[in-house]
Amino acid sequence: MNVQQLIQENNDKRKQLTEENEKYYDQLLVFLRSHLLLSEKQTEEILIELLDHLLLAQNEGKTAKEVFGPNPDKYALEIVEALPKEKGKSVFKFALETLSILIGWFIVVDAFGKAFTKQDTIYLYSVLIVLAILTIGGISMILFILNLLKKSAFHKHRTIDTLKASVGFIVFLGTVVTVNYFSKGLGPALKLDWYVELGIGCAFLLLSSIMKRLRIFKAEN
Q1: Closest to 149 in 3D by CA, of 130, 139, 133, 162
Q2: Are 42 and 84 spatial neighbours (Cβ–Cβ below 8 Å)?
Q3: Which candidate, 28, 37, 136, 148, places its Cα nearest to that of 83?
Q4: Phi and psi at residue 141, in whole multiples of 5°?
Q5: Does residue 54 contact residue 25 with C-beta atoms inside 8 Å?
Q6: How far apart are CA 82 and CA 161, in angstroms?
Q7: Rounded to an integer, what distance in angstroms lies between the CA atom of residue 141 and that of residue 14?
Q8: What is the pLDDT along the chain (221 residues), one digit of tens a residue?
Q9: Can you list the alpha helix ranges (DSSP code H) found in 83-123?
Q10: Is 12 in contact with 131 (CB distance < 8 Å)?
């Protein structure tokens, strides 16, 4: 099965877990999936194996704690250490894929804004500055959220971590909007119709979609 099929099977089978076992298993799931450097397919495969094992034990009246131990955090760390890591090249491609999505949506939203304001002028340095902030901020935001997921996976109360993620995302968007506003008019002026800019944004989104399909295909073969 491919990654998406494994995820769907996981979602379907988790519905059979008792409330107690589901809480335990979800901790493992969140922690493992938040590790960017782990092989995505093998992570999903081990999650399915753990789930199948737990379901069999559950049918025998056993709990997740009895099957995997009372410390899910230690057990999850053992799994992480055993799973193969993604190659640096794969991680780089994933980063490019994510950045293409961020840049694509930014350009699309900006294009629609210019369609309403009837603006067709862009400034080269302004664009480069915003793209640099978007790239640095986007990578930082992804790493920040993944780190929060790792830390919050075994917390009983995740409200504070959710609040931190929300604040971080607001700060990220606020920074991009602020830099975009104050960097206007810098560098050589270029004429660019809104529909051309929209096409460029859509091209970035299409590129990210193609990269995702290629990444999943290579991971499965």
Answers
A1: 162
A2: yes
A3: 37
A4: -65, -40
A5: yes
A6: 27
A7: 29
A8: 677 788 889 989 988 989 888 988 988 888 888 887 777 788 888 899 999 999 999 998 999 888 888 888 888 888 888 777 766 556 677 778 888 888 888 888 888 888 887 777 888 888 888 888 888 887 887 778 777 777 766 776 566 767 777 787 888 888 888 888 888 888 888 888 888 888 998 998 998 888 877 766 665 55
A9: 88-117
A10: no
B/e letters for 99-112, b = 16+ CB within 10 Å, e = fewer, are bbbbbbebbbebbe
Give the pLDDT score at 203: 93
Structure tokens at 133: 């902030």
In the structure encoding, which two tokens stand for residue 132, read together? 């640099």
Q: Which residues lie below 8 Å from residue 46, measured CB to CB, with a gap of 6+?
A: 32, 79, 83
Please give the C-alpha separations between residue 154 and each of 26, 30, 111, in angstroms, as whole numbers: 9, 9, 42
pTM across the whole model: 0.65
Other beta carbons within 10 angstroms of residue 98's beta carbon come to: 17
The residue type at 169: F
Distance from CA of residue 27 to its chain's centroid?
Answer: 17
Handedness of CA 86, 102, 130, 200 (dihedral sign): positive
